[in-house]
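Think of the structure tokens as a kind of shorthand, similar to the way a musician reads notation: each symbol stands for something richer, in this case the local conformation of the backbone. In the example below we present two proteins back to back. Begin with the first one, reading the sequence and then the tokens, and try to describe in your own words what changes along the chain.
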Amino acid sequence: MGTGAERIIARHEPRQKLAHDFETDIITERDDEGVAHIKELTGGIGADSVLECVGTPQAMR
């Protein structure tokens, strides 16, 4: 079993520039639209793990 993430999806705009260097999927949608986009990217499964790195109340919900 390997270590590290198999796939990364970035949403926060300042991190999107960095994400391009790492072949990261980028979404810009929030709330239900963001969830739908992530499910689309993951074949309907969704994320195995999520890291909240911004700390805004909306992101924490």
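Once you have a description of the first chain, move to the second and do the same.
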Amino acid sequence: MKTRKHSSEDEKIHDEVPVTDTNQETAIEETTENEAAKIAEDLEQLNQKCEELNDKNLRLMAEFDNFRKRTLKEKSELIKNAGENIFVNILPLVDDFERAMKAMGTTDDIVAVKEGIDLIYAKFIGFLDTNGVKAIPTENEPFDVDKHEAVTMFPAPSEDMKGKIIDCMTKGYTLNDKVIRFAKVVVGE
């Protein structure tokens, strides 16, 4: 049996092994401490970011609530004063009618009064037109249930007038293409 002699190199290897284990443990502990510090730093940054986002969210909610309240107030003001513009623009027509009525009591010139009334009527129709109110055409038009209301049926004077409007009893009007009053008509049968 051969025995092996321990050389100084073997001793060095055995001596180095325990030292490396201690170095590894120290390195692992330092790495773990570094990772823990990094995690704590990341956690602090995330908490700060969360607080910033929460603050932004609260401010945005408050801003939206203010916007909603302001919009509701504007809507209520608009509804409350919606007709104001119409009435302000119709007042000159009232003035014209008052002048015409005063002139009718003091003048004998019926032609001048008639011309004045015609001017007031034209002005009033122009006012309606500028505000989107238009008369529904009825003369020789085919009967349309979406625009006309048949008051009565009458025998048509000719074949081509069957199903068409013969006479208009009451004019109909649209406001921006929406019927606000149906035309009451007599339809040929």
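Compare your description with these statements about the second chain. The CA atoms of residues 171 and 183 lie 5 Å apart.
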